[in-house]
Amino acid sequence: MRRTVHFAVSPRLTALLGETYRQTEAALKELVDNAWDADAGNIWVTLPAPLTAEPIVVADDGSGMSPHEIESEYLDIARDRRSTKGEYSIHLKRRIKGRKGIGKFAGLAAARSMRIESVCKGIRTVVDVDKGAILNASHDLEQVPLPLTETEASNAVNGTVITLSNLDQALNFPSADKLRTLLIYEYGRESGIKIYVNGRVLDVEDLPGETESTSASLPNAGEVKIRFTIAEGKLPKHPGFLLRVGGKVVGRPQWFGLDKNQDIPDALRKRVYGEIEVDGLDQVVTADWGALVENSKAREEIAHLVAERTTTKLKSVFTREMNLQQARLKQEIARRLQNLPEHRRAFTETALGKILTRFYGERQDRIDTIASVILDAMERDEYWQVLRNIDEARHGDVANFAEALHQFGLVELTLMVERANGRLHFLSDLDALLVNPSTIEIQMHKAIEHSLWILGAPYHLMSSNATLKGVVERYTDKKYSGTRAAKRPDLLLNTDPGEAYLLIEFKRPTHPVSRADETQAQVYADELRELLPAKPIHVALIGGRRAAKSNPQNDPPNLKVWSYADIISRARHEVQWLLSNAAPSH
Ligand SMILES: Nc1ncnc2c1ncn2[C@@H]1O[C@H](COP(=O)(O)OP(=O)(O)OP(=O)(O)O)[C@@H](O)[C@H]1O
Ligand SMILES: [Mg+2]
């Protein structure tokens, strides 16, 4: 039977159609979501081979739609199905994903024609939708004719096939890998559904990262296969190992003891996304298929295998990433360590290693802050007294020794917390200096000179440099003597962590930094450059604020203008973060 049907448009449509899909893959996920809502057990997505005119096909074996449902539900645009059909799917009680009633149009974001073919209870219905016609009708969607045919299909199984053809060449060609990644985050842990993209079912390997496969034959558990990916970038939603017995999912993902392993930092563990497949273990699965029986030998064997096969891999990823993270810091750390007496150096290195391990996975600028605080602490004498006491305890009786070792891990943290608190005090003092109207540049200069960490990333590890200080003093002494002495600028020269020097000019806190100040600072830099030709000189001006007319967008690339207040508040924020994360119980 042939007839013509029409869209039904709800008033919410205009707002909803404004939505766009950034990627074709995200649009295709809408069609997968629809199949999920229709209780499909299998979904097959077929993408065209590159540079062909083949269509995209999304097929499912879900409930399908009767001709009436197509007309009253599918074509009813912007209808919220949950308001009439509830939050859960009819047969499998899945939580419904559809909410806006426009997902169907996602297909048309990528293609010019869409065919809906659905079989339900022995009737096959086909509707064709043409994007051109819809666009032309922009405000009168109800008038667009949609040819519908209805045929008998008594032996066909229920399900829906969406075919998208005449793909939009301007859009990125849909990538199977991208689509898999998108789908694995959402559907990777669901039971009762298999999603195939170009014939291959979704798998832990589809999560970006390194994948490992391993298997063993165990006395009680039988054949066990473990596959896991250590995710890179976005974290998986449900990390851990999902257990399947004879293909059927048992409960939620679990750790099998990996969460008790002190050597694996939490930040790394949460990136583990794995599956364990076991055959013929039905008798040790609890009646509700929620878990393996707690004390079963099979469970113990599996946990043992997980520990054996995953820890080596995790530790090697950990070491590699730690090295990478510290590579950038190494040069700066080495420079600061050089200034320490020999016996402190080795200890400082170990302490840094321990602390940085503990903060593994943190952002780079935070790691820099931590390293800078530790180095700071190690440069101070009072901490060595604490450490010496611990060291002496080691040579005492066994109980003392054990106690000292126990504390050992906490010592570095305690030092760090103390130092961080010291920094907060310093920042309050600096604040007080800043608000005092009689403060002049030399006072700010003196206060900041030995606490250059206050400048934040990437200057965290910068320490004052006596040689450069000498160069600047000779330069200013010579140029600004006698009657010019009153004009003497407050300059500090240092080695930038990159391949440059950083020349800072301090202004008084009441002084707004103007373009004239910038030009003058650049003249100092030019003149100093003649004395230090080896590296370029970057310039920073620190003052009360920027003069109203000077727009930061017009700053030359190697010049920065900072305000004391901003510097202090950013530094305080960093230290506070450190304190809130460094509590020994963390
Ligand atoms: N593959 C399918 N199998 C069965 N019914 C479907 C299928 N795809 C769509 N439908 C029906 O058509 C309706 C409209 O789908 P559409 O994706 O436009 O909206 P939605 O899923 O309700 O909401 P959303 O816009 O949030 O996706 C669905 O609610 C569902 O009833
Ligand atoms: Mg939908």
Could you list some keywords that capture this structure?
586 residues, alpha/beta, Heat Shock Protein 90, Ribosomal Protein S5, domain 2, 9-stranded mixed β-sheet, binds adenosine-5'-triphosphate, binds magnesium ion
What share of the residues lie within helices?
40-55%
Indicate the radius of gyration in whole angstroms.
33 Å
Unreliable parts: none
Query: What is the count of β-strands?
Result: 22
CATH superfamily of the largest domain: Histidine kinase-like ATPase, C-terminal domain
InterPro entries: HATPase_C_sf
Protein name: ATP-binding protein
Pfam family, one: HATPase_c_3
Structure description:
The mean pLDDT is 86. Helix 2 crosses helix 7 (176-187) and helix 9 (297-338) crosses helix 11 (364-378). The protein folds into four domains: 2-197, Heat Shock Protein 90; 205-313, Ribosomal Protein S5, domain 2; 320-412, no CATH class; 441-574, Trna Endonuclease, Chain: A, domain 1 (3-Layer(aba) Sandwich), CATH 3.40.1350. It is flat and about 105 Å long. By secondary structure, it is of the alpha/beta class. The protein has helices at 13-17, 24-37, 67-74, 81-85, 106-110, 131-136, 176-187, 266-269, 297-338, 342-358, 364-378, 381-395, 398-435, 441-449, 466-479, 515-531, 564-581, and strands at residues 2-5, 8-9, 42-46, 56-60, 76-77, 111-120, 123-130, 146-152, 159-167, 194-197, 200-201, 209-218, 222-231, 240-245, 248-254, 272-278, 490-495, 501-506, 512-513, 537-543, 545-546, 559-563. Bound molecules: adenosine-5'-triphosphate and magnesium ion (MG). Magnesium ion (MG) is lined by residues 30, 33-34, 98, 103. Adenosine-5'-triphosphate binds at residues 30, 33-35, 37-38, 60, 62-63, 65, 73-74, 81, 98-104, 160.
